[in-house]
Design brief:
Blueprint (H helix, E strand, L loop, with lengths): L3 H10 L4 H12 L3 H38 L2
Helix pairs in contact: 1-2, 2-3
Length: 72
C-alpha cells in the first residue's frame, strides 16, 4: 500500500478537501478500511455530480451555439 503522504496527495489531487483527506487518513490509521472506503465513495459521488453539472452546462452552450448558427 502507498505511504500516508502519497495517499494524502492522491486524495487532494482527486478533489478531496484537506479535511476530507485527513478524515480518510484517520480511518486508515485506525484500521477502519471500510470507513475510509465509504468516505472515498462519498467523495467520488460528489465529483461525479459536479461532472454531470458541467456536462449539462456544456450541452446548453452547444445548444445555444447550434441555435445561433441555425438562425444565420
Amino acid at each position: 500500500m502507498q505511504g500516508e503522504n502519497e495517499i494524502r496527495e492522491n486524495l487532494l489531487d482527486a478533489g478531496c478537501s484537506g479535511s476530507e483527506a485527513e478524515t480518510i487518513l484517520g480511518c486508515l490509521r485506525s484500521g477502519d478500511r471500510k470507513g475510509a472506503e465509504k468516505l472515498i465513495d462519498a467523495s467520488r459521488k460528489k465529483q461525479l455530480a459536479r461532472l454531470h453539472e458541467s456536462q449539462q452546462c456544456i450541452d446548453r452552450l452547444d445548444y445555444l451555439r447550434w441555435q445561433m448558427r441555425k438562425g444565420e
